[in-house]
Amino acid sequence: MSTISIIGSGSMAAAIAGRACKAGYNVEIVSRDPAKVRALADKLADKANTGTYGAPPSGDIVILAVPYSGIAMVVADFGKALDGKVIVDIANPVAPDLSGLVTPHGSSGAQETAKSLPAGAHVVKAFNTIFGHVLIRGGRLDAFIAADDAQAKACVSTFVERLGLRPFDVGGLPMAHTLEALGLMMIGLAKNGAGTWDLAMNVNIG
Amino acid sequence: MSTISIIGSGSMAAAIAGRACKAGYNVEIVSRDPAKVRALADKLADKANTGTYGAPPSGDIVILAVPYSGIAMVVADFGKALDGKVIVDIANPVAPDLSGLVTPHGSSGAQETAKSLPAGAHVVKAFNTIFGHVLIRGGRLDAFIAADDAQAKACVSTFVERLGLRPFDVGGLPMAHTLEALGLMMIGLAKNGAGTWDLAMNVNIG
């Protein structure tokens, strides 16, 4: 099985890395904080390694598992090292008070990230509508994907499927806005009508 | 059982009216096209009546079942007749080519509608994430609701529940934007990953 790289050492990084290791992937974890990334890799046993922050990641798929506010720095720090990679943007660009999205009109976090990446990198929006603890818990989960590059999208779709999720293509990268709004809607749902964060959104067909 | 009023005579008007009649509501249907509204009321049997376009609706709940582009005219034509009513906005304010939302930055269709209504009317966003043919088909369906006025929201929540749907409060009226984005996301899903319009979004808890 191939290698995937994860930049970040928080709860989403841990949740995706955990499922990827179980699915047989070699997982490279990279972070500005070597101690945190080492601790996470140790927990994940021998399928996980640590990489060098800012150096070209080993995986063809690179997951940006940092908060939206931290993406610009990561992209600047890696620069050309991300060229040619499939970049998975999992961020929910929500205001600190969770009242709305912080993205510009007519754009999305994923599109803003795409603008700052090397031209040969392909951004795929995914995972932002699945809470980290729900991803760890497992069970039937649907994963929504938006991207412009068909090959990059197919690549992430296969990855997601091997992780035991059901991938659903929602369209091109501009549809990332709808997924980011869905992320915010789920936060609203958790705080209001559902009364729990232990929730997922599923597609019911037919 | 109380009366609800529906302004519109299209597929969503028919779907909501059909379920409301079955649930025992008296349904008043109102439209600028008397022939269409008469034909719809006749199909729905003796629980449905037609009302006069522009006159005060009989129901405390008034469902605006017209396209987003038609709401401004309806609101202007009814004017003060909608004062004190619970106004249910079911519109998906999507561009004709379905590429995005047409609402202003930081707002939503429901909030724009609220601005043009009499001060005593309370807008509730609901039903926009359920396709009309799916609403007719039945089965387990989740209905997402956003509103600022707690009493209006509770009122619509009860209505939705009596229709056999599971209501979920996602927060205040600004959260209508997330529901409108979810409506667009479902269109993208139907055209892309799901490959069918016969789909619904459900909440999976625990």
Automatic annotation (TrEMBL), chains A, B:
Q: Which UniProt keywords apply?
A: Oxidoreductase
Listed InterPro entries: NAD(P)-bd_dom_sf (IPR036291), P5C_Rdtase_cat_N (IPR028939), STEAP_metalloreductase (IPR051267)
Molecular function GO labels:
oxidoreductase activity
Q: Is Oxidoreductase included in the keywords of this UniProt record?
A: yes
Residue ranges occupied by any Pyrroline-5-carboxylate reductase catalytic N-terminal domain in the UniProt entry: 3-93
- Quote the protein name from its UniProt record: Prephenate dehydrogenase
